[in-house]
Write a structure and sequence with these properties.
It is a single chain. By secondary structure, the protein is of the alpha/beta class. Helix content is about 35%, strand content about 20%. The protein has five helices and six strands; from the N terminus they run αβαββαβαββα. The chain has helices spanning about 1-15, 40-55, 95-100, 115-125, 160-170; strands spanning about 30-35, 55-65, 75-80, 105-110, 130-135, 145. Strands 3-2-1-4-5-6 form a six-stranded parallel beta sheet, with helices on both faces. Helix 4 links the parallel strand 4 (about 105-110) and strand 5. Helix 2 runs parallel beside helix 5.
């Protein structure tokens, strides 16, 4: 029942943001906003550092679940804490939304592996013409979606592997 509120808001935002897909290659991207969950913090940090080595201006936002340790403090990153910055309907606070929607980025990259509704809502509020992420459902959230079969229990999908795949495809495509 609680998902109903955020699902409706995500659907409304996604419908409002629909438009022409705007693909960019890695060379054309200057500023990047990265979204991730705290469970993949170290791998997301690797990805962010890699983008910075490529000369990209990177900002990031991590989601700390209610059972996750809150031991993250990096200057490049805004951590959003469940039950503190997020209400019971999984909606981020107005101050978080204002803070994240104040910036503009060439690309938003979603490194979440799970269907995190709060991150999906934030993804849609960040100003960017190009959004990239893993396909988790049929919601039209991204301009470029990666479909990766990660059903293999012996070799589960990791944030690092997802990041490597995103980098590969961004280097492969050519801006029009």
């Amino acid at each position: 029942m609680l998902d109903f509120v955020i699902n409706r808001k995500i659907k409304k935002l996604a419908a409002h943001k629909k438009g022409k897909k705007h693909f960019q290659d890695l060379n054309a991207i200057r500023s990047v906003f990265v979204l991730f969950e705290s469970s993949g913090y170290s791998e997301a940090e690797w990805f962010i550092n890699h983008l910075e080595k490529l000369g990209k201006n990177v900002s990031a936002c991590g989601y700390v679940g209610k059972n996750d340790p809150d031991t993250y403090s990096q200057p490049f990153c805004r951590m959003i804490k469940d039950k503190i910055d997020v209400d019971r309907w999984k909606m981020p606070s107005e101050s978080i939304i204002r803070e994240l929607s104040a910036g503009s980025y060439d690309a938003v990259i979603d490194l979440t592996l799970e269907n995190n509704k709060t991150i999906q809502y934030l993804l849609l509020t960040v100003d960017s013409p190009f959004k990239v992420g893993l396909r988790k459902n049929d919601a039209p959230l991204y301009d470029m979606t990666l479909s990766i079969n990660h059903e293999d229990k012996d070799n589960p999908l990791t944030v690092r592997y997802l990041g490597e795949q995103i980098l590969y495809y961004l280097q492969t495509i050519h801006s029009v």
